[in-house]
Structures are given as C-alpha cells and as structure tokens.
Amino acid sequence: METRVRLLPWSESDFWLLERANEPAMTEHLGGPESPAKLLDRQRRYEALGAREPAAGRMFRIEWLTPDRAPAHHDGPSPAPAVTVGSIGFWEREWRGEAVYETGWAVLPEFQGRGLAAAALTELLAHIGAHGTRDSVHAFPGTDHPASNAVCRRAGFTYLGDVDFAYPPGVPHPSCDWRHRVTPRTGITPSG
At 149, phi and psi to the nearest 5? Predict the structure, then answer.
C-alpha cells in the first residue's frame, strides 16, 4: 500500500507541532531542546518564510492520509481522513560556493518507521520542482542518525560524503551531505 501524505503551509496554529518536535527524543540528533524564546522565534521565522515568494522556501505541516481511519459507514466517497504527523521544509542557503536549498523534517515518534518522512520529502521535491529556482536540495542528517540518512536514500538523494555541519549554529556536528538535483525537473511525482 502506498504511503500518502499532503503538505499544508505552516500557520500560527501549528506552534503545538514545534513544541512536540522540541521534546528530548526528537532533538537528540539536533543538539537538544530549544528554549521557549527560541521556539517562538522559530515559529515567527516559519510564518515569515510562508509570506515570501515560493522560491524562497516554505515550511509545511505533514498530514498522513490514513485509509485505515476512514469511517466504517458513509453514504459515498469521502476524502481520506488525515492526521498531522510532523513537519518538513526547505530554505535558501549557500553551500560550498553554490546557491542551494537545504531541507529538514521531523516526524513525531508515534508515526516513525512508516515511510512518512520519505513520502513527505518526495512531495517537497515536487513542490520545489514546481516553484524553486535553485538546482540542488541538500540534507545534512548526522552520521549518528541512520533513520534520516535512510530517508535521503529512499527519496533519491545522492550521498556526497561526511562533513562537519554546524547545527545548532556554531556547533560542528559530524553529518552526511546528501544532494538531490532538482533540474531537469523530471521523475519527481507527488504521491496520490
């Protein structure tokens, strides 16, 4: 069965998702939880990114379209119910002298291991293909994070090698550099 997700633009009502993503289990590979003030700042940045032109980047809430949660009895076709499972986004950055996009995601613990991050990343790549202006998307999961590295592999990224990537800013962390070439814009299809 195909894993189906949809990406919804980040909104002010999604702050609860930032709080969930800030729990120790979710930030183990990211330097630990952020302070409440930093979370509020992150929320403002996510909302501001959505107000810019689409090529500048976006943050999204990931919804899992769950056929198993469909009502047992109904009078006709209805859209698949959905449940929020995490977040994903992309933003502009310079990397080794090239203007690229960076991507990152978070899937809540109770939904991990179901292919949702890879499905969301595939949707995001389709969005970037339609709206982006840069040729490459990079992801930098830690070398100690096999699940996120598997997501990159499954979504068709190419492993470029290990790097010391600063996250949080100023703190070098051994990471893997994964790249997905956006152009030519073929072969990227959203699920569903």
Answer: -65, -35
Contact 175, 149 (CB under 8 A): no
CA distances from 177 to 74, 101, 102, 157 (A): 48, 12, 10, 10
DSSP state of 33: P
Query: How many CB atoms are located within 10 Å of the residue 113 CB?
Result: 10
**pLDDT value at residue 12:** 94
Sign of CA dihedral 93, 96, 99, 102: negative
Which pair of tokens denotes residue 149?
Answer: 């590295």
What would the pLDDT profile of 8-29 be if each residue is shown by its tens digit?
999 999 999 999 998 888 887 7
CA–CA distance, 55 with 117 (Å, rounded to integer):
22
Gap between the Cα atoms of 192 and 182, Å rounded: 21
Is pLDDT of 165 > 60?
yes
Give residue-wise pLDDT tens across range 122-146: 999 999 999 999 999 999 999 999 9
Show the tokens assigned to 147: 């699940």
